[in-house]
């Protein structure tokens, strides 16, 4: 008999991983919302950008990117498409012409009004699976993960 111990790490079990569960839950929520938003000509990214402008009062692309959690390139690409679709208008800043200011058009305001019941319903469906205490605890735990994530990983 050998005195050496097997130092091979146990196999990685996908269905036991936190990442798998987080990803699957997020995909279920996103897929349901995307299906509803698609009916009004939006996707999740355009929806989040509309909310950043309409509900948070953000007007600078860099602020919108941080709020939505996407990079500046993706934000600029989405804003160009949204401008083409008539959802937002872009204008140059008053003091610095290089600065861009984003505002909602009437069509963008209607899209927010149409999408809000879908988003609210989707969130309520997910929350109904948990007790109020479980819901609060899940939000708290997710915040721990989000806030504890190193900056190089959180810039998605």
UniProtKB/TrEMBL annotation:
Stored Gene3D superfamilies: Winged helix-like DNA-binding domain superfamily/Winged helix DNA-binding domain
PANTHER family, A to Z: TRANSCRIPTIONAL REGULATOR, MARR, TRANSCRIPTIONAL REPRESSOR OF EMRAB OPERON
Sorted UniProt keywords: DNA-binding, Transcription, Transcription regulation
Domain HTH marR-type span(s) in chain numbering: 15-147
Record's protein name: Transcriptional regulator, MarR family
Gene Ontology terms, MF aspect: DNA binding; DNA-binding transcription factor activity
InterPro entries linked to this entry: HTH_MarR-typ, Tscrpt_reg_MarR-type_CS, WH-like_DNA-bd_sf, WH_DNA-bd_sf
Pfam (any one): MarR_2
Coiled coil start-end: none
């Amino acid at each position: 008999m050998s005195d050496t111990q097997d130092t091979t790490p146990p196999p990685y079990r996908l269905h036991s991983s936190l990442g798998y569960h987080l990803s699957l839950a997020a995909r279920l929520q996103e897929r349901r919302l995307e299906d509803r938003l698609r009916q009004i000509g939006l996707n999740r990214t355009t929806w989040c950008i509309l909310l950043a402008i309409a509900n948070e009062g953000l007007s600078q692309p860099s602020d919108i990117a941080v709020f939505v959690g996407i990079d500046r390139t993706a934000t600029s690409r989405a804003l160009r498409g949204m401008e083409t679709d008539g959802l937002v208008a872009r204008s140059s800043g008053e003091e610095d012409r290089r600065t861009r200011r984003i505002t909602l058009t009437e069509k963008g305001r209607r899209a927010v009004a149409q999408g809000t019941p879908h988003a609210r319903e989707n969130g309520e469906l997910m929350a109904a699976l948990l007790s109020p205490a479980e819901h609060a605890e899940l939000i708290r735990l997710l915040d721990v993960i989000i806030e504890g994530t190193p900056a190089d990983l959180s810039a998605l």
